[in-house]
Design a protein that fits this description.
There is one protein chain. It contains 15 helices and 13 strands. Helices cover about 35% and strands about 15% of the residues. The radius of gyration is 23 Å and the shape is elongated. With about 375 residues, it is α/β, with parallel strands linked by helices. Helix 4 packs parallel to helix 5 (about 85-95) and helix 12 packs across helix 15. It has helices at about 5-10, 10-15, 20-30, 40-50, 85-95, 110-115, 130-140, 170, 185-190, 195-210, 255-260, 280-285, 300-305, 340-350, 360-370, and strands spanning about 30-35, 55-60, 100-105, 120-125, 145-150, 155-160, 220-225, 230-235, 275, 290-295, 310, 330, 355. The strands form two sheets. The protein has an eight-stranded mixed beta sheet with strand order 3-2-1-4-5-6-7-8, sandwiched between helices. The chain has two domains: about 5-260, Rossmann fold (3-Layer(aba) Sandwich); about 275-370, Rhodanese-like domain (Oxidized Rhodanese, domain 1). The N and C termini lie far apart (about 60 Å).
């Protein structure tokens, strides 16, 4: 390191566990961050500040105003721009001694090996199960540590997978959950500071791993509850029967993770027997008398709606008397997940003519826009 770097990292060098040797390890290291959003923002900022020599950023999304509540890499001037482009600019302004490599493409089974093989550690800040399983499997095959983090509402999870003799993500979650039951930050919300807590903890695990100091979260799942302000740990053991890291693995190559997690390919809408498709609802909407029941929150309804009656899902069980039983009911939300839960509540309480709008308002609007084109 040169004199300027020695001065810059003086507080690191003062730590016996780090010192010159540890800081030089960081300078020579390469870390790939999946997702430049809520978790990726604090990770990238602190890893850049710490002097990690090469940081890769993989994200193909653009910046929306709803991101600014928690994605601290961006500001109001960033709206509409590519996340990795803005992130690269901010990180290079923070530390001109490091290298930022960006990947403006979706992570797939076709490109994962090529991208991952250039890095020492993969830190996953993604928000969906297909990506998590893909990252896990690719890391197992390549023998690369996988720093895992996830957030929702007021709680977060953190662990380190892929270490020698340690568990992998599939040991903790052998099978993906039913996609219809999966909560997400868009529908259920997330406290703005929560990804800051989990993201910086992920960055801590990255630094410890790179310098080989401390006790990494291998074989342990850390759970943080912001409302009660407590941390809990649970043991996670390697599963000898795990299909990818077990004694006799059955998975020999990367698979189609959208199909594995969703039962469908890509983003195609899954139409179940008690659903109505956006196209069919468009016809019904203009020709048949019905009640459209929106189970989102009032603030969401104010932003955009298709009309109808608004009863938030959390209030629905106590407001059933407000809903007529002698009419067809179409339940709707943003993407069709909360509305399915609402439909099930109605059916259990004697409402016999109820259907769910598959894909929600988002799918209906997308379909209408395509029709206009």
């Amino acid at each position: 390191m040169n004199h300027a770097e020695i001065n810059r990292y003086a507080r690191h060098l003062a730590l016996p566990e780090v010192g010159i040797a540890g800081q030089e390890k960081l300078k020579a290291s390469r870390v790939l961050i999946i997702g430049a959003g809520g978790l990726g923002s604090p990770m990238a900022l602190y890893l850049a500040a710490a002097g990690v020599g090469t940081i890769g950023l993989a994200d193909f999304d653009v910046i929306d105003s709803s991101n600014l509540q928690r994605q601290i890499l961006f500001n109001e001037n960033s709206l509409g721009k590519r996340k990795v482009v803005e992130a690269k600019e901010k990180l290079e302004a923070l530390n001109s001694n490091i290298r930022i490599i960006t990947y403006e493409e979706k992570l797939t089974k076709e490109n994962a090996f090529e991208i991952f093989s250039e890095y020492d550690i993969i830190a996953d800040g993604s928000d969906n199960f297909p990506t998590r399983y893909l990252v896990n499997d690719a890391c197992v095959f390549l023998g690369i540590p996988y720093i895992f983090g996830s957030i929702l509402r007021f709680s977060g999870q953190l662990s380190v997978f892929g270490a020698k003799n340690g568990p992998c993500y599939r040991c903790l979650y052998p099978e993906p959950p039913d996609p219809e039951s999966v909560p997400n930050c868009t529908d259920d919300g997330v406290l703005g500071v929560l990804p800051g807590v989990i993201g910086t903890l992920m960055a801590t695990e990255v630094l410890k791993n790179l310098m080989n100091i401390g006790s990494p979260l291998v074989g342990r799942l850390l759970i943080y509850d912001a409302l009660d302000m407590n941390f809990r740990q649970f043991a996670v053991k390697r599963n000898p029967e795990c299909p990818i890291c077990g004694d006799h693995p059955s998975i020999k190559e990367l698979i189609d993770y959208d199909e594995f997690c969703n039962g469908i390919i890509s983003t195609e809408i899954k139409i179940l027997s008690d659903d109505i498709s956006p196209k069919n609802y468009s016809v019904l909407r203009s020709k048949q008398k019905h009640l459209l029941l929106d189970v989102r929150e009032p603030y969401e309804f104010q932003i955009s709606n298709l009309g109808g009656m608004l009863i938030p899902l959390s209030e629905l069980p106590n407001r059933l008397t407000e809903i007529p039983k002698d009419i067809d009911i179409i339940v709707v939300c943003k993407e069709g997940i909360r509305s399915r839960k609402g439909m099930e509540i109605l059916k259990k309480n004697g409402f016999n003519h109820v259907r769910n709008l598959a894909g929600g308002i988002k799918a209906f609007v997308d379909m209408s826009s395509q029709s206009e084109d």
